[in-house]
Amino acid sequence: MDSDDAATLALHEQELRRGTIVLASLAACRTPRYGYALLSTLADAGFQIEANTLYPLLRRLEKQGLLKAEWNTDEVRPRKYYTLTDLGSQMADSLRSEWDTLTRSLTTLWKEDSA
Amino acid sequence: MSSLTEKYVAQVVRRLPENNRADIAREITATLSDMADARLAADEYPSPAAAAAAERAALEELGDPSRLALRYSESPRYLIGPELFPVFTRLTAWLLPIVAVSALAVNALVYVLATPEPAVGGMIGRMVGNSILAVLLAVAVVTVLLALAERLLSEKDKAQVAAPATRSGWSVDDLLREPPVREIARPEPIASLVILAVMALVPFLPTSFFYVGHLNAGGGFLNPDLWDGWIPAYLGFLAAFALIEIWRLASGRWSTAMLATMMAADVAFAAFLTAAFLSQDVLDPALFTGSGGEPGWYQGAAVVLIWVVTVWDQLATVKAYREARSLRPARPR
Questions:
Q1: Looking at the predicted structure, is the pLDDT value of residue B168 above 60?
Q2: Where is pLDDT greater, at A37 or B205?
Q3: What is the Cα B301 distance to its own chain's centre?
Q4: Does one domain contain both B304 and B204?
Q5: What CATH number is attached to the domain comprising A26?
Q6: Of B177, B204, B233, which closes a domain?
Q7: Residue B182 within a domain
Q8: How many domains does chain B have?
Q9: ipTM of the assembly?
Q10: Fewest Cβ atoms closer than 10 Å to its Cβ: which of B130, B144, B237, B263?
Q11: Backbone φ, ψ for residue B110 (5° rounding)
Q12: Chains A and B: how many Cβ contacts under 8 Å?
């Protein structure tokens, strides 16, 4: 694979991952988390996402009503905690089942063609 | 919080709407501290140098403040998006030729009317210079208007604006309304008509128009004696060619009769011009006596040129005819 092909592969991988980041963020926010903790949680689970992508995304999800954010000023460092709302929970479920459907479809397709 | 972090945060939020600034500034500040701390985790009492290095690394990870601000602001990162892009291409494709042609025509007219001694160089300079400006201006106006529409219209309105260009509501019925594809594209006969008009002007152009007016006191290029028959016949040929082109424009379809007419007219015209060049002084002899040249040297060259052009034109015509025929749908037998 030359460098052009590698770049093409990287592009496709990026597109494949892009859609999963919303679902992963929603899943991780079932327990209240602040930005950096969320970043670490996602990284530990294997989702490589950059901070400068995650923070604007969290804000967008908050604006769409899927997450709610609260400042916690009890600690030394004030932090903004994000929690999944009821709407966010419903949407996460729908996205999850869509994901499962896609996985099954792909598995079937893969089997059929190799047989 | 060091001044470096403060500066970074200020660079980000100054690009954001006012009502979000305080909140985002607080969050980014906390995040940068968290990121720096994570790098120092192993070190319980970090040296100031290590703390500064960790802060720098955190800032670099978050990256260019203007890009981060752009991600927060959600405004489109393109001038004209995919919804309106077809409108842009349609509009420019339709508008630019019109602007170019009318700018050329208007400037030519203004030049001829306003210049005491019109000459072709000056006219071309004026036409081309002003027309390029007009076309650039048209592109700029279309781009600015659509870029504004991209930012001001809602998605639904954009779709509506784009509908005629993108045909989002396309159905098979549209195929029925679509006129059949023309075998002879309109620009082709129109270009020929323009060339014919220019050729018809030749007997009337004064020599001063081409900077050689001193040779025969600004008379025409052609021998004035030819007006008693040869020039009217020349104009008659051009009129016949114009009728053929109008026929082609109106019908839009090749036919064998059309091909035969075109080829016959071409050959007849070439024969006529050959006869003219071989039997007459076609150019005004005064042009040569004025410059001390020998009249008549050009006649052989003109005849060769005429037949080269004619043969080339015949080949091109036959090729176009065959190409158009080959594209016709096969008739069921």
A1: no
A2: A37
A3: 36
A4: yes
A5: 1.10.10.10
A6: B177
A7: no
A8: 3
A9: 0.82
A10: B144
A11: -60, -40
A12: 49
pLDDT tens for residues B116-160? 877 888 888 888 999 999 999 999 999 999 999 988 888 778 877
Q: Look up tokens 């008739």; give the residue.
A: B331
Both B140 and B164 in one domain: the answer is yes
Q: Are residues B195 and B317 in the same domain?
A: yes
The distance from CA A46 to its chain's CA centroid, rounded to whole angstroms, is: 11
Residues B55 and B94 in one domain: no
Q: Answer whether A55 sits within 8 Å of B35, measured CB to CB.
A: no
State residue B211's pLDDT score. 73
Query: Could you tell me if B201 and B308 lie in one domain?
Result: yes
List the strands of the sheet with A79-84, edge to edge. Answer: A33-34, A79-84, A67-72
Can you give the residue range of the structural domain that contains B216?
187-326
Structural domain of residue A27, as residue ranges?
Answer: 21-114
Please say whether the beta carbons of B131 and B104 come within 8 A. yes
Min Cα distance A11 → chain B (Å) is 19
Tokens 């023309």 -> residue: B182
Q: Do B67 and A77 touch (CB under 8 A)?
A: no
In chain B, which residues have their Cβ closer than 8 Å to the Cβ of A34?
A: 30, 34
pLDDT in tens, A70-86: 998 888 888 999 999 99
